[in-house]
Amino acid sequence: MSSTHSKEVVRMITKSEVQPRHVLIVGQGYVGLPLAVRAAEVGHRVVGFDVAAERVKRLMAGESYVEDVPDARLVPLLASGAYRASLDTADCTDFDLAIVTVPTPLRDGAPDLSHVEDAAWMLGRHLKPGATVVLESTTYPGTTEELFGPILERASGLTAGRDFQLGYSPERIDPGNREWRLENTPKVVSGIDAASAAAIQDFYGSLVDTIVQVSNCREAELAKLLENTFRHVNIALANELAMFAHDLGIDIWAAIDAAATKPFGFMRFTPGPGVGGHCLPIDPSYLSWQVQRTLGRSFRFVELANDVNNHMPDYVVRRLVDALNKRRKALNGSRILLLGLAYKANTGDARETPAARIAELLTGMGAEVQAADPHVNDDAHPRAAALENLQRVDATPEHLAAADAVVLLADHDAFDYAAITAHAPYVLDCRRRLAGAHIDAL
Prior knowledge:
Strand content: 5-15%
Helix content: 40-55%
Distance between the termini: 52 Å
Low-confidence stretches: 2-9
């Protein structure tokens, strides 16, 4: 495999014209489906491949399980033939460009790239000269050129850079974000050589308003981890400050509001019940793992942030126990209503949600736990086993009043906050959306 390591500066490139291509997108989840739909909408012919039969069945019926892709966008693309979903590898042939958006979870603290490897072997068997392959899955620097590319070469008998183009472009999907969507979020792209970079830039330039071209794949891979590590560390700082401020009798939220008035040198981060999704609980650990494996050194910021953020659910439960004790109630036998099972507001994304750990702890301590979330459907999203058997209710005045304590975990706009304030006897507000004598902020 060839590679470029030139030191040219990052270049911002504006949107390009569409040259219709046959596009294959491997993985039809939170990243792959919005990407596939966008590509089909601008004029490409798209196949969305996924190994989950139920997921493919729903897509072909015009049912989207990703909130950023409503059925109204999906149905006309299916009708026109611009997009189709498949779990048959026979449909993965003759592509001009393939993009891999498969999960990259952690297994016992180490990156699990088995899905990336499987995708590379599958694509390699169908790879033709002149095609372009892009990895979007979050991973450690070096994956594209040291793992992904060599598998493509072995499976195809072709050579990256000579026979086909190869590169990396990190996903920047933020589920539920109504302001920053795929098309108006700058897209970082890279290639193993100049021809690869140009081909990848040209394709993504047809989808998004702005392209950010970096000089090699390692820089693009690290950029993704840097973005998420930055957030992870700063959220951990806010979380630890919140714990100390509470013990010191200081309103952390008022302090954050005051600090945020500074027009320079400060960026607002707020505490919460823990972190979720793929980005924060998982991605920074990829970098920590590689630093330890390659350099034999620990990435102390990531390890400390992991420790703080991973234990925020324990802190939430501890605060709840203290609050009930003050009201002469035991957690054992109390009815606790959790508001919000998603890891963030206004989305149904429950991946790695802190609500799962909180529910598990409360149930294990004898509480009767109920949960309300208008976005998280029973069958739409993979989530922790702790949520599977959780009693689901609506946040009605009756259920609010019947709870011994209500815990606001995800501050969805769909919740009636006036009703929560009026009817809940006690609220532990982890997002500072409420105020009142019977409400405690995290």
